Amino acid sequence: MAGASKSILLRGGRVLIFDSEKNATFPTLDILVEDTIISKIAPLVAVGPNTQVIDATGKIVCPGFVDSHRHLFQSHIRTSVANQTLLEYCGHLLLGRVTFYKPHDVYLAQLGAATEAIHCGVTTVLDHSHIQLSEEHIAQCIKASIESGIRSIYCFAPYGLPESINPLKFSDKPHELHQQQLDLFYKLSEQSPLGSSKNDGRLTLGIGYDGIEYRPVEDTKKLLEFAHGRKYPITFHDCHRHGMSAMKFLQENNLLSDTMVLSHFNFPSEEDFAAAKAHGVGISSTPESEMQMSHGWPEAFPAMRYGCKTGLGVDSSAICSGDLFAAMRICLQTQRARDNHELASRNKIPKRLRATVDQVLYMATLGGAEAIHLDSEIGSIEVRKRADIVVISTDSPCMVAASDPAAALVLHASPSDVESVIVNGEMVKENGKLLKVDWPKLKHELVENMKELEARWKGVDWSWNTDELAEAWYMTDKLE
């Protein structure tokens, strides 16, 4: 049934509910959705004939997955950086291919990316978006986000994209360019709702702000105070190894706040953990990309153990898989390897595993909502929360006869098991079919659009672009 239903009943599913110790339980329950919220949860809920009833018997019903750090528009260039470092990713993609995008390319890329997320059971994304090529590019990005049906925080990210490549040339007036982009952000902040009247509240505004170490402190304070005053989430890349030390700068200038999200957060000190916990800063770990891009070991479990708000993200599905099943699995098993290695270094054998499936499942749901400061609205199946819900089939050869639903979700499930998805009370995927887009049509458009893009950047020497970028960033002597 396409479009929003006035009421939906999920009948008899095994519903994921966390206890106070973050242990996953799966009681058999009915869930009634009315308009945009969860209105009733009980062993048996009676409804009238106008309610859409979905038989969830034997299926797993869980909160929609929350991706706390993703660059949505990049998914259209998937596989382009599969064997590349962060520097190469910047030279080939972020400060390379992206510069060829026209507004309609951004629209298709964003719509395809959000559709991918929904297909995978991700209902909320903190979208760190630095495709600020023009006001029309931004408008098309927002338009696609609204049309997709996903819940998203559009974190507008001012970014100094190059004016040309081969040779690489940046603006000789970077501060003017930065201010022009900030003016566009302030202009967006005046829109209510963001984008158009078609936005029912699922798309909200935030800001992605990198390079704060290189900007005047007073200008940064002014922007952060504005965003904090409006309760806009503020996200930063925090990658010490790559010259993005947001946490260090924020601590030194007393700018930390409980609306902030730090992505990656690799190589944190004890002081960093303490500051994040004390100020309520969210931490987003993207295990799959972090290990490829030489950020460092994923710090999700250490952050959770310290008491920080901790979520998971894909980062970019140009780099890796676009689902949180893979992120959970890699995060969990990597931490188990680290824990076991520490014991082995002392000639010890583990008595039990410290990192559990329940903990990483929490990160992908309620933990992610906490990390992006939306846990009062989403992240768990509770009465009066927004109805963002996923139904997982247990009929596939990979899932059948699983005795532990949490372990099944983390270690065995895949996007193909995501049967139905509800966002804000609207059915956006049902019985495996996407309802917000004409997928065969969009698929064709994405394929044809990629052919156009490849023709535009044909002949570009990406290695030259990467080498010039290494020189511009004073990295040449560090490369090996």
Automatic annotation (TrEMBL):
Signal peptide as annotated in the record: none
Pfam families (UniProt xref): Amidohydro_1
Keyword Ribosomal protein: no
UniProt keyword Membrane, yes or no: no
Keywords: Hydrolase
Example of a GO MF term: hydrolase activity, acting on carbon-nitrogen (but not peptide) bonds
Amidohydrolase-related domain span: 60-428
UniProt protein name: Amidohydrolase-related domain-containing protein
